[in-house]
Design a protein that fits this description.
The chain is of the alpha+beta class. It has two helices and ten strands; from the N terminus they run αβββββββαβββ. Strands 1, 2, 3, 4, 5, 6, 7, 8, 9 and 10 form a ten-stranded antiparallel β-sheet that branches. The N and C termini lie far apart (46 Å).
């Protein structure tokens, strides 16, 4: 009985973050809050939508971005990222560059206990997104 209880407890702890593909909202927008260890610049708005057709797209703060993506369980990989070519303030351009670079390094995803989508690179901290309201 103790072994069964310990097994159930361990299973519950190991599944604390959701990786069920149903938890990943497709054709629904997400708003970026953090790029790794750094929050976004105030009033900047970076977004991502993962289309059911395998296309990812959104706003990178200054320019629109787009890429293909592949999802396999908790693994997610983005193809080469493209974007429009507007120029903005240097700080926004630097943040956009960090975001576009980070999206290309993503290897897996999960949803945190507070319902944030986290896109994890092989090393380091994740990109953290909130689902868009509405």
């Amino acid at each position: 009985m103790k072994a069964l209880l310990l097994t159930l407890l361990a299973t519950a702890l190991l599944t604390g973050c959701a990786t069920d593909t149903d938890a990943l909202k497709r054709d629904h927008g997400y708003v970026l809050e953090w790029i790794g260890e750094r929050p976004l610049i105030d009033n900047s708005h970076l977004t991502m939508t993962l289309g059911k057709d395998g296309r990812a797209y959104g706003n990178a703060g200054c320019n629109h971005w787009f890429a293909s993506y592949q999802l396999d369980g908790d693994a997610i990989h983005f193809g080469p990222v493209g974007s429009t070519r507007k120029m903005c303030a240097p700080a926004l351009m630097e943040q956009e560059h960090r975001f576009l670079e980070a999206i290309g390094k993503v290897e897996h995803w999960d949803v945190s206990e507070v319902e944030q989508l986290q896109l994890w690179p092989a090393q380091g901290l994740p990109l953290r997104f909130w689902p868009e309201e509405g």
